[in-house]
Write a structure and sequence with these properties.
The protein is α/β, with parallel strands linked by helices and 404 residues long. It has 15 helices and 16 strands.
């Protein structure tokens, strides 16, 4: 049975999306992401939920393996956003590329997607999206994926994506410097901040303390985000050993094996929480941490948490990640430390911060936040994308006239 015969979705979803296609809407967006929609709420979700106010958005996730027939499961995830999950049986996994190619085309036909934008967060999707004819190809480059995966063919796929892309966005200065030499239309567009959401943490009362954090003594040092190879767990363990009275709280999904996680009485693995819950946890921290390792991957990192910690009013201690040093450390709103001893000293300085120093820091932070809303980022992104589509259409029209 071919995948084109087994596209599986509810009739309600089909009617809902096809009804939208008849109302004179804007071009659809088909996005390819290495992370699942519900994993963590980050740049893709912030941007695409805002684009979904004017576009249908199809968020195509990595395939999952199960014993059923090849198929797509399509479900609404947010107003205007549908998550698309390919399912493939084990015996086809080694040959998944042609099946994924087939499923993408079936998605386009099944949902009457004719005028569309291809939006990439991963070069891997280039392997099964060749031959499509979008209005524009967008590469929103968030990270040095090839450096993390250590798979040489990803470099080749990214080279092909850069060749096909009409516009490239990067979310940090380091990535921008790296990619602007590889493409003629690269724009630095740092991630924004949902400031009202995180500013709530400044005023939450003790009675709002989450049940699984309330019993942890103070002072508390916290980190939230995906816990993977980028987090310097050895540094955290060393800090925990050096200051056993300090409590280290780690919030977020873990991609590592349990045996890789340090076990200490003062290290607390809280687990993943919904985006809406995070400010309540932040409110109970004394210092927010960004303990990232320094390698080829984090050399280009621009952690979204930096602004979110700052908006919550927390003093920040980070390892020397280039896009945290500049601008945040240089503006005096974050401390940088490399060794265990330096990290401990930086945290101690944060814990000694008095009300005057805190007020001055918050004043500087609020000035930064005013310029970094997701609404501003989305508006800038949309303006550049629309200009790109218009220029591409004008160039094609000129070619058509010349050939007529």
């Amino acid at each position: 049975m071919r995948s084109t015969d087994v596209l599986m979705m509810s009739h309600d979803v089909i009617r809902q999306t096809n009804a939208a296609s008849s109302r004179g809407r804007n071009a659809d967006i088909v996005c390819f992401s290495p992370l699942r929609w519900n994993f963590v709420f980050r740049r893709p979700q912030h941007l695409l939920t805002r684009f979904a106010l004017q576009h249908r958005v199809f968020f195509f996730e990595d395939p999952v393996m199960d014993d059923g027939p090849p198929r797509l499961v399509v479900r609404p995830a947010h107003p205007g956003v549908w998550v698309v999950v390919p399912h493939l049986p084990p015996h086809l996994w080694e040959y998944k590329t042609p099946w994924l190619r087939d499923l993408v085309r079936q998605l386009l036909r099944g949902h009457a997607i004719s005028d569309y934008i291809l939006w990439y967060y991963t070069p891997k999707a280039m392997a099964f999206t060749q031959g499509l004819e979008p209005l524009a190809v967008v590469y929103d480059c968030m990270s040095e994926i090839a450096a993390l995966d250590q798979v040489p063919y990803l470099r080749l796929l990214e080279a092909e994506l850069l060749r096909r892309a009409d516009v490239v966005f990067t979310d940090g200065p380091s990535l921008h410097a790296s990619r602007r030499e590889l493409h003629p239309n690269v724009h630095l567009l740092p991630s924004g901040i949902d400031a009202p959401h995180f500013v709530r943490a400044r005023g939450l009362a003790d009675r709002d303390e989450p049940f699984d954090q309330a019993s942890i003594p103070e002072p508390r040092l916290g980190f939230f985000g995906t816990i993977d190879e980028r987090v310097d767990l050895e540094l955290l363990a060393a800090v925990a050993d050096t200051r056993p009275a300090w409590q280290i709280v780690l919030l977020g999904p873990t991609k590592l094996e349990p045996t890789a996680l340090p076990v200490r009485p003062n290290i607390h693995w809280i687990g993943a929480k919904r985006y809406e819950e995070v400010p309540a946890y932040l409110a109970g921290w004394d210092v927010a941490l960004l303990p990232l390792v320094r390698n080829a991957w984090t050399r280009f990192a621009n952690p979204t948490q930096t602004l979110e910690y700052l908006a919550a009013g927390k003093p920040v201690v980070a390892t020397p990640i280039r896009d945290v040093v500049r601008p945040y450390a240089e503006l005096g709103v974050a401390r940088i430390a490399q060794s265990t001893d330096d990290f401990v000293l930086a945290v101690e300085a944060c814990l000694r911060e008095g009300p005057t120093a805190r007020a001055e820091r918050l004043c500087r932070i609020d000035g930064i936040l005013a310029q970094m809303s997701w609404e501003r980022v989305h508006a800038h992104f949309r303006e550049i994308l629309q200009s790109c589509i218009a220029a591409k259409a004008a160039a094609q029209a000129a070619r058509n006239r010349q050939s007529a």
